[in-house]
Design a protein that fits this description.
The protein is α/β, with parallel strands linked by helices. 37% of the residues lie in helices and 21% in strands. The protein has 13 helices and 15 strands.
Length: 342
């Protein structure tokens, strides 16, 4: 993907996410820079009275990451402050709180670092939907008894994590002979650097912290059909999110989005509208689960056919991550809480 000039509220601003991520790694790991009220749940800031007034209406944007929110060079289409401005515009237009959650084939640890770089703190759907995480403060007893639940600490953030997919070890046991030649070897630092993993930290977060999926390098590989067939026989899913393929079983971005909807509805007792946006085949279930769906127009290939086939999905005109900005502009002007929105 390429970085495109931004229009509307984000005119002409870019953010080097990869640089920001590297700069923030030590502070996230050490617990420095605790999230402020402005950052909490990715909401636009409100006064206490305004926050109370918006309690019963929420717009949640569930966004894919690579190719949708950041491009192939690690750049976002706007700065974190202008991202907040766009969310405020949506909130004012609809009299609702506005939040952003991330949904990606990346691991939870990768997404937390990325959230810091973007000035967001909120829900994460990681490993192509196999992992769902929210801040502990968002969860009450109605969900704490759910199965496959754990608690982790990342910096000063306390997260509740649900494993929605089968553990990665189960997939390796069943499909080991098929997938082993295509798994990335984190100990091969030269090869990992060639693939864009620039530090031990990025390797650890992307590979070693992966819990319920297996990352495969099948780009341009003639073994892809055989691996896909073996995954299908094992009732697993092999999805492409761009450069990599992710192997999961029993989960998906759509399934995780549905779970997040149930959680937030139970906790907030609010009228919730979920907006889904993505650019590749692994985003199809996300868009299908959303109340309002947007498909990014890729620089190569345009709108992915699987996304174009989602009923009622809106196709974006701008190329690549600039489409995310276009979506924010359109959300401010379209009827979100109308039952006939789609």
């Amino acid at each position: 993907m390429i970085a495109m000039p931004c229009r509307g509220v984000f005119s002409g601003v870019d953010l080097a996410v990869e640089t920001a991520m590297n700069e923030r790694i030590s502070s996230v790991s050490s617990g420095a820079d605790a999230p402020s009220e402005r950052e909490s749940w990715g909401k636009c800031p409100q006064s206490p009275s305004r926050e109370a007034a918006l309690r019963h209406r929420t717009v949640l944007i569930v966004s894919d990451v690579d190719g949708t929110l950041i491009d192939g060079t690690g750049r976002a289409p706007c700065s974190s402050s202008l991202l907040q401005d766009g969310m405020q515009r949506i909130a004012r237009a609809h009299g609702a709180a506005c939040s952003v959650a991330l949904a990606s084939s990346r691991t939870l640890h990768e997404l937390v670092v990325l959230q810091r770089a973007l000035g967001l703190v909120g829900a994460c759907i990681a490993e192509d939907g196999a992992i769902l995480a929210v801040d502990e403060s968002e969860v009450t007893g109605v969900w704490t008894e759910s199965p496959n639940r754990s608690h982790i600490k990342v910096g000063r953030r306390s997260l509740v994590v649900w494993t929605l997919g089968d553990p990665a070890d189960h997939l390796r046991t069943e499909l080991g002979s098929v997938i082993a030649p295509h798994e990335l070897d984190p100990s091969d630092t030269v090869h990992m650097a060639m693939l864009g993993f620039r530090s031990r930290g990025t390797v650890r977060r992307a590979i070693n912290e992966r819990r319920a999926s297996v990352l495969l390098d099948l780009h341009g590989n003639d073994r892809l059909p055989a691996v896909r067939e073996a995954a299908s026989r094992a009732q697993a899913h092999l999805h492409s999110g761009g450069r990599w393929h992710t192997l999961t079983r029993g989960a998906g971005k759509g399934h995780a989005t549905d779970a997040l909807r149930r959680l937030l509805t139970a906790q907030r007792r609010a009228t919730l509208r979920i907006v889904g946006i993505g650019n590749e085949e692994n985003d199809a279930t996300l868009l299908a689960s959303a109340d309002i769906a947007f498909a990014i127009r890729n620089a190569k290939g345009g709108i992915h056919p699987d996304l174009a086939a989602v009923p009622g999905a809106h196709t974006l005109g701008m190329i690549g991550t600039a489409g995310f900005v276009e979506m924010l502009d359109r959300l401010a002007d379209m009827p979100i809480f109308d039952e006939a929105t789609r």
